[in-house]
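Revision sheet: structure tokens.
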Amino acid sequence: MKIINLVENESGDSGCEAAHGLSFYVETENHKFLFDSSPSEVLIRNAKTLGVDLTAVDTVILSHGHYDHSGGILPFVELNPQAKIYMQHNAGGEYYAFDGQDKGFRYIGIDKKILSLPQVQFLKGDTKIDDELQVFTVDQRAYPLPSTNKRLRELCNDQYIQDEFHHEQNLLLTAGGKKILFCGCAHNGILNVMETLERKFGPASLPDLVIGGFHLMKRTEFSEADTAEVTEIANRLKSYKAHFATCHCTGLPVFNQMKEIMGDQLTYVRSGDEVIVE
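Predicted:
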């Protein structure tokens, strides 16, 4: 099995570019797939730098309907028009970020051209693609949502309402004797993602490795409440046996805080880094 972080916010030692977004390339016995596609054609450039053949990819799984995860799809399909692209049926909604009173609301959804691609498969909730790939959504929440979600909205009936992230999906990969959980941003909360996985599929489904962002980074200084939120999440994640490889919207300051609690159980993966599966 091979897992490579093609694109994320920080660059590693591979010569790959950094960009605000996320894309993983994964090789298993049965698949060569992408989990998310980065914000742009940086996906293509980094794949070339790493010698990853995107024309051999058979599957793309989009975690949710934001540009920084979907922006590489149109450049990708120019190279590879055969791969199936899986997203939730409402991933093409009107999703916005509130950038403050001066700047207002900014569209952060996917390019609508993607929705008419013939290779796109729209899913409704949990879907078993095959024996390796199980997509699932968070249907109920035992823990609070990340406080950083507050500025993320959906335009509905001319109102910017709170985005409930029903368009978000996660992937449980079962391959090579391991279970690996991929989450793009965990907008539903990484603790809720973990709880949902166990509740829906049983304790045996709990992963050996969790890969993805936790959406805890902020543009402003952290308050005491923010620090307490991160501490609570890190302590609860520490109770799992999984290793956590995080990136993107977790942010390095949050990673460093969580690392103090989780130690070797937590690593950060940058653009071009390979994730070691042990």
